[in-house]
Design goal:
globular; Rossmann fold; 41% helix; 2 domains; 426 residues
């Protein structure tokens, strides 16, 4: 990486000096986890390369990204088109270091297009001889084609830091030969702003007996597929369309009915309020349908990343009496407050995390378990009646995960020293 490389501001044309860092990820999707990760990674980079380091964040959703990221002379937002190959090549050429910052990096659970974007950025950096680091990322389910692509292209990465040991093992099994290291997710070191203290109480002052959070995911939407055309209601951003079929719609309807029944049981049996949590914008329609299907609507609210930023959502999560989650980052961001939790999982991320926390299999349920809703209701009752049941396990897990997360910055700093020039060096 070059030190004090003279270049030009992408908008004003004014000259500046300093290393240039490109952050390639799922930026601007109103996703609380991605937002928390991005802000933490920006802090990590500035702590290592100084406050004048030039950082560029590419995005398909510029308007959303500007909700929580303030552009200035050192931080740049770069809109890119849906067909991203040439845009990524150009951005890589303009920068000195490429970081892959999306947690769900090496998996095609959501869509192959995201995976290909990250692999293309790696390929472009390798071709242009720019250092490339995958920063605290995960690995999960992959098709045969994508396993082959990951083996070929991810091996060109200069360093891959995985956020679990399980992810590192998956990449090794695939045959990735890049240097590998495992730590924990960046979001473990993310903290809400002081102004957002007691945020849940501020937005829901009527609560008197505590809140149980249900962080839901519409599994039926995924994966997003690439098509030249399709139904308008299924369009995410051309040419990407949500998956739809009669079977998928039946799955969604079962989710709505199951979650609605669980929410009503929590309210009636435990006298708690229920927050239906949308950790990503795409979770909100499912949460709203669940609310419509409930009997006790007055004791329930939808709390969504469409309305609130990562600081506010994290503060809200920390005030819950119990979290039931299908979202990885709601589990991560609530851990600092030692909120008891149960997972309803649908991909390897929560499975790996619960294994690390030693909550698997006792507090982990798969979304297609035949007795899902009965078992979930039982576990909810157990934890609400025994509020300290998980306390020691969560405390131990928190200490371990925070310590591992703090190593991300250290490992990146060592990489920069070995592969370039840190500020203050000749």
């Amino acid at each position: 990486m070059q030190k004090n490389t003279a270049t030009h501001d992408f908008k004003s044309g004014e000259k500046f000096t300093g290393p240039r860092v490109l952050l390639v990820g799922y930026n601007g999707a109103n996703n609380t986890g991605s937002e928390a990760r991005l802000l933490t990674i920006i802090d990590d980079i500035r702590s290592l390369l100084g406050p004048h380091v030039q950082i560029t964040v590419p995005t398909l959703n510029e308007e959303n990204l500007r909700r929580y990221l303030d552009e200035d002379e050192y931080l740049h937002i770069a809109p890119i088109p849906s067909i991203f190959f040439f845009a990524i090549d150009k951005l890589v050429k303009e920068h000195d270091l490429v970081l892959l910052v999306e947690g769900s990096c090496y998996m095609d659970t959501w869509t192959s297009a995201l995976l290909w974007a990250f692999l293309w950025a790696t390929r472009s950096a390798h071709k242009q001889k720019k250092p490339c680091v995958a920063y605290a990322v995960d690995a999960g389910e992959l098709s045969s084609l994508n396993r082959w692509l990951v083996k070929r292209e991810a091996s060109k990465t200069d360093l891959i830091i995985t956020r679990t040991m399980h992810a590192q093992k998956r990449l090794e099994e695939i045959g990735v030969t890049a240097p590998l290291n495992s730590t924990a997710d960046c979001a473990f070191t993310f903290s809400p702003e002081p102004k957002d203290h007691d945020f849940l109480t501020k937005i829901w002052p009527e609560v008197s007996n505590g809140v149980v959070g249900l962080a839901v995911v519409d599994f039926s939407l995924w994966p997003v597929v690439i098509r030249p055309w399709g139904r308008k209601e299924n369009l995410y951003k051309w040419p990407y369309y949500f998956s739809r079929s009669r079977e998928r719609m039946n799955t969604r309807e079962k989710l709505v009915k199951g979650w609605a029944r669980i929410a009503d049981q929590i309210i009636k049996e435990h006298s708690k309020e229920v927050a239906l949590i949308g950790m990503e914008a795409l979770d909100q329609p499912l949460a709203q349908d669940i609310l419509r299907g409930m009997e006790n609507k007055d004791s329930c609210r939808v709390i969504s990343s469409n309305e609130y930023n990562a600081s506010q959502m994290t503060s809200m999560l920390s005030q819950l009496d119990l979290l039931v989650t299908s979202r990885y980052h709601s589990a991560v961001l609530s851990l600092r407050a030692l909120v008891p939790q149960i997972a309803v999982g649908h991909d390897p991320r929560l499975t790996s995390f619960y294994q690390d926390l030693h909550l698997f299999p006792d507090y982990f349920l798969h979304h297609d378990d035949p007795n899902l809703w009965e078992d979930l209701n039982q576990k909810i009752g157990l934890l609400l009646d025994n509020t300290d049941l998980q306390k020691d396990t969560l405390e131990e897990g928190l200490t371990q995960q925070v310590n591992l997360s703090q190593k991300n910055r250290i490992i990146l700093g060592e990489f920069l020293k070995e592969n370039g020039t840190m500020p203050g060096e000749d």
